[in-house]
Every structure is written in structure tokens, then in C-alpha cells.
Amino acid sequence: MTFAAVGLSHSPLIGKNDPAPEVLTRIDAAVDQARAFVHEFEPELVVLYAPDHYNGFFYKDMPPFCLATAATAVGDFGSQAGPLSVDRDIADTVAEGVLDLGIDLTVSARMTVDHGFVQPLEVLFGGIDTVPVVPVFINGVATPLGRVSRIRALGDAVGQATARLDKRVLFIGSGGLSHDPPVPTLKGAPARVADALIEGHPPTPEQRAKGEARVLQAGRDYAAGASTMVPINPAWDALVLDVLENGTLADVDAWTPDWMAREGGGSAHEVRTWIAAFASLAAAGPYEMTSRFYEPVPEWIAGFAVATALPR
Ligand SMILES: O=C(O)/C=C/c1cccc(O)c1O
Ligand SMILES: [Fe+2]
Questions:
Q1: Are 195 and 59 a contacting pair, CB within 8 Å?
Q2: How much is the ipTM here?
Q3: Which domain holds residue 23?
Q4: What's the 3-state SS for 112-150?
Q5: Which of 8, 120, 143, 184 is the most exposed place for a label (fewest CB within 10 A)?
Q6: Is residue 272 classed as helix, strand or coil in its secondary structure?
Q7: Spatial CB neighbours of 257, under 8 Å, sequence gap ≥ 6
Q8: CATH number for the domain including 10?
């Protein structure tokens, strides 16, 4: 068994509302480095921790986290649609192992996923069906949210359960860091929006296009400084990356969802995916962050980070 981890921010605005060329060049170099890291590691299995943005999970049943034994991508924001190459047998084995370790994991035999899952697979592997994957949804948007300590415990249990497989396993955390995109909230939502967030009526192509255009415009306004969205917070993002780099993961147990939202915006909770990925890596012992990149990118509405890590 050998482990590795990658944390990678996602944004549906990548390629649609890009920052200045010199910023893009720096980001491309960091992403290229992460891709080379993954290529060299040659994972036999990817455990992919990612959030959802009201494409697969709705308030009628909103688990804090959920492991998929099969998953299909909706193709939002031009991302690839269709089935992910989920290894069902391994997903079952990991789920049983995690439950046996005392974590109340939920399981989906038909998960619907969006760009949160698809983007890292596209960026690092060139598509959603090129490597055996176990997708693990982590709620990073829909309040109320539970303690971050439970996410750390989940990651640790997944790491322990996966260690028994005797495979090269790459853990990926998708999302973050500080960011406040215009994802709707149930609290205070008009009746029509609340119903959609609860029930999850699949949008028509026109409704989807309208929603995506709204997010694109929000990115343009944010970059122009004409927005009320919570600003990207490089100091908070550095704190998050420091904890992950230093391996002091127990620090996150003191983080409250309210504090995280105040510091990093409504989608800062996506850093839960990074915490799970690094906790899984840490289940095999001390690790070293082998690369770390960060840049605030208002055009993408993202405190954008890429990091790689290996056991010491
Ligand atoms: O509107 C959505 O579905 C999500 C938008 C978004 C924007 C920027 C960064 C992210 O992580 C997002 O999910
Ligand atoms: Fe997101």
C-alpha cells in the first residue's frame, strides 16, 4: 500500500472568465506540476472527495457525506457528462471498512455529481472514466453543517479502510479555499427557489444556461470590484494550507462552520474535502507536502490552491 494526496481548487469559471495571462501562467505551471506528480505516482485507485452544488444532493435528503458505488456526472458548466469509472467492489469494501470503524457513512448506489467531482478528474486524468475511482461527496454548501472533526474522522477511517487494499491510492480534495460564489441558500429563499433546493427538479437546458450565465456575470462583477460577495481571504487560506502542510490536522476540530463562513465565505466549507484527503493520507503515518501553490483569483471566485503530498 502506498498513499499520495492532491488538493485542487475547482471553479466552473476556469476557461470562461480567466485572470491576466501572467496569473494564468503561474497557475498552469502549478497544475502541470500536480499532473506530473499524479502521473509519476501512477495511482491504482483514486478516492475523490468533492462537494455538490445542488445538482445531486438536495435538502429532502442531505447527508454530511456519502460514498458512491456508482456515479454519473450531469455535465454542468460544460464539464464532461456521463458515468464515472467507479470501482464498485472496492467502493463496497471501503464503505464496509469505514462503517466498521464507527463512522456513520451513507452510501449511494446511483450518485449524481457535478463539476466538483468532474473538474479534478478532467484536469489530472484527462477525463472521468480513465482511472478507478471511489467518489465521496462531502457537503460543503448546504447548512447546517456538522463539526469539522467528523470530516477528519471520516478521512482517517477511509485511509485505514483503504490501507488494507494493498494498492497505490491517491486521495484528492476538490474545492475551496475561501470563496463566496452565488450558490443559493435555503435560509431566506423565495418559495420557488426553496422548493428547487429541497426537491431538486432537474433544470431545463434553458434554466441551466440562465443559472450558469448568472454565475459567470457574478465572476465578472467580483473581479471588477462591483460585488457584495465575501472577499477572498488570503490570510485565512494561508492558515488552512499551513495546517495541512504542518500535519496539525487536529487543529481543525476547533473550527466552527460560522467562523469558516465569516472568514472564507459561504463555500469556504469546501476545504472539508482537503481535510478529508489529508486525513486519509495521514492514516498511513506522517506526510510531507511536496508542493504548495496559492493565488487569489477573483475572476474564478476562488482562493485558488494546488498542493501535493506524500508519506515521509
Ligand atoms: O454555481 C455553482 O454551481 C458553483 C460555482 C462555483 C464558483 C466558484 C468556485 C466554486 O467552487 C464553485 O463551485
Ligand atoms: Fe465549488
A1: no
A2: 0.98
A3: 2-311
A4: EECHHHHHHHHHHHCCCCCCCEEEEEECCCCCCCCCHHH
A5: 143
A6: helix
A7: 143, 144, 145, 148, 269
A8: 3.40.830.10
> Over the stretch 275-307, which tens digit does the pLDDT of each residue have?
999 999 999 999 999 999 999 999 999 999 999
Cis peptide before 177 (omega within 30 of 0): yes
Residue 30 falls in which region: left (phi positive, over 0), alpha (psi -120 to 50) or beta: alpha
Q: How many CA atoms lie within 13 A of 55 on its CB side?
A: 27
Q: What is the mean pLDDT of residues 242-262?
A: 98
Q: Which of 49, 115, 297 to mutate to test the pocket of ligand 1 (most atoms within 8 A of CB)?
A: 115
3-state class of 306 per DSSP?
Answer: strand
Query: How far apart are the two ends of the chain, measured CA to CA in Å?
Result: 14
User: Whose alpha carbon is nearest atom 10 of ligand 1?
Assistant: 11
In this prediction the pTM is 0.98
Domain count, the chain: 1
31 vs 56: CA distance, rounded Å:
27
The answer, yes or no, to whether any atom of ligand 1 lies below 6 A from the CB of 215, is yes
pLDDT bin (cut points 50, 70, 90) of residue 177 is: very high
Considering 53, 179, 201, 269, which one is annotated as catalytic?
A: 179
Q: Does the active-site annotation cover 179? A: yes
